[in-house]
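Project outcomes to date are best conveyed with an example. Our students and postdoctoral researchers have been running inverse folding experiments weekly, and each run begins with a structure described purely in tokens. The record below, which covers 446 residues, was selected by the lab manager from last quarter's runs and is presented without edits.
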């Protein structure tokens, strides 16, 4: 299966492209797609979803929802129907749940399972097996979830037994993480009373918005300068609601930066989600001098979206504050590529969380820059890139990380020499249409 670590690696090379042009629409948001299936599972009756991202990560969540008792059907392109069992109604799965490469699917489902009196084993590929899960298991343990087995250091495969009467807790997340917050909120759905999650830096709020939309009693108030306090009353009956998944800003980032870097380009990316907790990359690129016009702002699926018209731009280096990291956490690899072509230095501050993504992204980005002749340094948790003309010519190790693969393929569209990645298969986890979409704009990879 593509996008799976047991598939043979497929190298791919990007060469300097002529001006990119045209319109495109990137697939549905990965965060919302995972949640759409989970909400479908937890609502009683039929939830209809349109625009679902049909990437490997999300398909694993669909499989897990089935194993936990939902009927999940694909009716057409991005059109799915979930017949859910309701909060409290989950079935114990008969085998391990394999989440592949997906941190989001595995962590959110741990929360869902944690609020039910069932036992389940959560596992995934070699990348997922390296990722820290204690951050999820610790708050869940406070709620009464038992960890029956785990690999060293709180890693997958992990077997948990959820609770039929989880304790409502008040919990301050140690890092800004929507995955930690969401796992607790999903477990809290079955708790008798109010659970409160406090975050000192707000992370993406899709779970909270969808909980409110499905009829849960949830309040969100500011906490300090950048934080939020989220309180959820347990044991609601979630009502199925239609879900329209807007286009993923984290996927839009690749054609967007490609259009900025390839001289003469003029590309429009349609209907990109503009949730303010996801737009840190746009803010940063605009500060760098990017020519991006946002037009046709409208609401789709409860989120603001807009069309992004992007023209090739000469960028200048900027200082990206650490406080912006949660709103662009998945975009640093492609920002580092943009920075490599910008005049002067770009300092990206506070990147410690990058070390625990699909790969150690700080190291993978640094190695990719070095392989292509880009000057950089790491100071503590900051990455500083010195931009200019990019020599290219390197082969980048992707370490089972889709975003490393796509970022460096974009680099090769504008560098003096071609850039290769050692494996493109993982791109299917989040953006299966990446190659044909980029080819339609004029960027062919071979
Ligand atoms: C996600 C949250 C982020 C992000 C991931 C998707 C989510 O992870 O990196 O790609 O959908 O909740 P953290 O919450 O661990 O920062």
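After processing, the design step wrote out the following sequence:
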């Amino acid at each position: 299966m593509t996008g799976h670590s047991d598939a043979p690696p497929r190298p791919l090379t990007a060469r300097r492209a002529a001006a990119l042009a045209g319109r495109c629409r990137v697939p549905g948001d990965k965060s919302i797609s995972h949640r759409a299936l989970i909400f479908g599972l937890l609502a009683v009756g039929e939830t209809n979803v349109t625009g679902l991202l049909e990437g490997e990560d999300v398909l694993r969540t669909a499989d897990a929802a089935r194993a936990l008792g939902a009927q999940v059907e694909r009716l057409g392109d991005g059109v799915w129907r979930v017949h859910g069992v309701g909060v409290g109604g989950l079935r114990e799965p008969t085998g391990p749940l394999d989440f592949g490469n997906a941190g989001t699917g595995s962590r959110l489902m741990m929360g869902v399972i944690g609020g039910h009196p069932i036992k389940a084993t959560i596992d995934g590929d070699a990348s997922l097996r390296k990722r820290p899960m204690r951050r999820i298991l610790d708050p869940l343990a406070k709620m009464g979830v038992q960890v029956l087995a785990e690999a060293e250091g709180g890693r997958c495969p992990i077997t948990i037994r959820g609770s039929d009467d989880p304790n409502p807790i008040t919990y301050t997340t140690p890092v800004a993480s929507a995955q930690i917050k969401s796992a607790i909120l999903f477990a809290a759905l079955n708790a008798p009373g109010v659970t409160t999650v406090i975050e000192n830096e707000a992370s993406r709020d899709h779970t909270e918005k969808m909980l409110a939309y499905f009829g849960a009693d949830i309040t969100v108030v500011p906490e300090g300068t950048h934080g939020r306090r989220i309180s959820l009353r347990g044991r609601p009956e979630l009502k199925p609601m239609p879900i329209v998944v807007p286009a993923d800003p984290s996927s839009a980032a690749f054609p967007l930066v490609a259009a900025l870097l390839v001289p003469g380009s003029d590309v429009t990316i349609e209907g990109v989600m503009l949730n303010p907790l996801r737009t840190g990359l746009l803010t940063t690129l605009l500060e760098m001098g990017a020519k991006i016009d946002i037009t046709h702002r409208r609401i789709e699926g409860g989120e603001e979206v807009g069309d992004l018209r992007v023209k090739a731009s000469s960028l200048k280096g900027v200082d990206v504050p650490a406080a912006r990291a949660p709103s662009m956490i998945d975009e640093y690899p492609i920002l580092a590529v943009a920075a490599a072509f910008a005049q002067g230095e770009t300092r990206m501050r506070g990147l410690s969380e990058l070390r625990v993504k699909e790969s150690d992204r700080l190291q993978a980005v640094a190695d990719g820059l070095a392989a292509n002749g880009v000057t950089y340094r790491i100071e503590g948790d900051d990455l500083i890139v010195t931009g200019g003309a990019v020599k290219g010519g390197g082969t980048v190790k992707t370490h089972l990380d889709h975003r490393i693969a796509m970022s460096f393929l974009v680099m090769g569209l504008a560098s003096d020499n071609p850039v290769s990645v050692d494996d493109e298969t993982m791109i299917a986890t989040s953006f299966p249409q990446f190659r044909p979409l980029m080819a339609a704009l004029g960027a062919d990879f071979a």
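DSSP finds twelve helices and 23 strands in the chain. Residues 30-244 form a domain with the UDP-n-acetylglucosamine1-carboxyvinyl-transferase; Chain fold (CATH 3.65.10.10). The training component of this project remains on track.
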